[in-house]
Design goal:
Distance between the termini: 46 Å
Oligomer: single chain
Shape: globular
Strand order of the largest sheet: 15-14-11-12-13-16
Structural class: alpha+beta
Number of strands: 24
Number of helices: 8
Largest sheet: 6 strands, mixed
């Protein structure tokens, strides 16, 4: 059976970039950036050509649910972005898994892009949507460990100004010492209005001023930090206007420049998430759960607490259904672990007056649904054991209150 493609897609307000490979390929190939524009010529839709009649900034149109008039027809921005992505990815006939990375995400864009992925023939569970900070995390995870031994800095220079992000590992107190917790913080943001005094440099004197300003900017950010590596993203960094700043950046650090970090990071995230032998990388931000719910399972003859809702995931992506076989027991015990509180609590689920059966012939269907980021509802239902035991009709529900964001995430970093 021919293996399909694994794809990472970066979308921003101006362009789209694709990194791709197959399930066995660690280092992806990257396609040159494609303008995020679409137009209709007679009855045919054409993408990537920057013409006057083109429809631009499809990402904003989709996120704002705008309506666009083309000739005598009206199109939804969501539909146009979906069409653009399908046209861009048409060259890939067989896609196993795909990740989209954007400057920022919300539930609407997540649902939209998962729907687009399904239209491309990818199963819903193999369509991932994340922001660029998370893609930075996965990109670094696949680099040499000395590059993120301490903190790693990313400077992005685009049409909005200069954004600076810092990636670092957290040392959390949890029982699984193998977990690697990573955060990416936005530590500075300078917009073009502030930079307009010194940038773009039009002559040698202005270049020196821009270099001096950027150098001070870097030194303020790096003050009292141990930085292992620096990444420069954006067309503006290709122009050699910052020689002194570059010397500061390179002082005891590895410095890299390029424009495909996010699409590669999205590609690496798919490789990580679809690899059954993956290690315990946990990326945390304000949108991720800081608690996990565990159920005790016997695996290979050993009892262990297994997460059925895992920290570092989004609450609205945790709905699931599975089945378990029980020993003779009067109740089920759940364990809730909190990163923020560094605490463990237990919840018992009574099984009522169920008839005794032999071990592992009592089968429960378990449904997990989140009402919101703080409310997890777990439904337990006896579904019988084939032709041997009919269902007893047992059915119960457990409501678990979680901490949610609670305004405490920043205390981790």
């Amino acid at each position: 059976m021919q293996r399909g493609y694994v794809i990472g897609v970066e979308l921003n307000h101006h362009t789209c970039q694709i990194s791709y490979g197959d399930a066995e390929q660690q280092e992806p190939k990257t396609i040159e950036r494609i303008p995020l524009v679409i137009r209709k010529k007679e009855q045919e839709w054409i993408f990537g050509e920057e013409e006057e009649e083109g429809i631009y900034d499809l990402l904003s149109l989709a996120m704002k649910h705008e309506l666009i008039q083309v000739a005598e027809k009206t199109y939804e921005g969501v539909w146009l972005l979906s069409l653009y992505i399908q046209l861009v990815l048409k060259r890939f006939q067989n896609i196993d898994a795909i990740a989209f990375t954007l400057p920022y995400i919300d539930e609407d864009i997540v649902h939209l892009l998962k729907s687009v992925g399904q239209k491309l023939g990818v199963s819903k569970e193999n369509v991932y949507v994340q922001d660029n900070k998370e893609s930075f995390c996965y990109y670094m995870f696949y680099q040499q460990k000395e590059l993120w031994q301490y903190e790693s800095a990313l400077f992005q220079c685009d049409g909005n100004g200069v954004q600076t992000y810092m990636l670092k590992k957290l040392h959390m107190k949890c029982e699984n010492k193998q977990d690697t917790f990573i955060v990416v913080d936005e530590v500075a943001n300078v917009d073009w209005e502030e930079l307009s005094i010194i940038y773009p440099p039009n002559n040698e004197e202005e270049q020196k001023k821009a270099d001096e300003y950027f150098n001070r900017f870097i030194k303020n950010i790096f003050h009292r930090r141990l930085i292992s590596s620096v990444f420069l993203i954006g067309d503006e960094f290709e122009k050699k206007w910052y020689p002194n700043s570059l010397r500061t950046l390179c002082n005891g650090r590895r410095v890299f420049q390029g424009d495909n970090l996010y699409s590669k990071g999205a590609y690496y995230s798919v490789q990580y998430k679809t690899n059954g032998k993956r290690s315990n990388l946990i990326y945390l931000d304000q949108t991720k759960l800081m608690e996990q719910i565990c159920l005790k399972f016997r695996i290979n003859g050993r009892d262990m607490w297994y997460p059925i809702v895992q920290w570092g995931t989004k609450w609205y992506e945790n709905d699931r259904q599975f089945e378990i076989l029980l020993e003779n027991t009067d109740d089920i015990e759940l364990r809730i672990e909190s990163l923020l509180e560094n605490s463990i609590r237990f919840v018992n689920v009574p099984l009522g007056n169920l008839s005794n059966r032999e071990k592992y012939t009592f089968r429960l269907q378990v449904n997990i649904i989140f009402r919101d980021e703080q409310t997890c509802v777990i439904t337990w239902k006896d579904i019988g054991f084939g032709n041997f035991f009919a269902s007893s009709g047992f059915h119960t529900q457990t409501v678990i209150k979680l901490g949610g964001r609670n305004g405490k995430f920043n205390s981790l970093s």
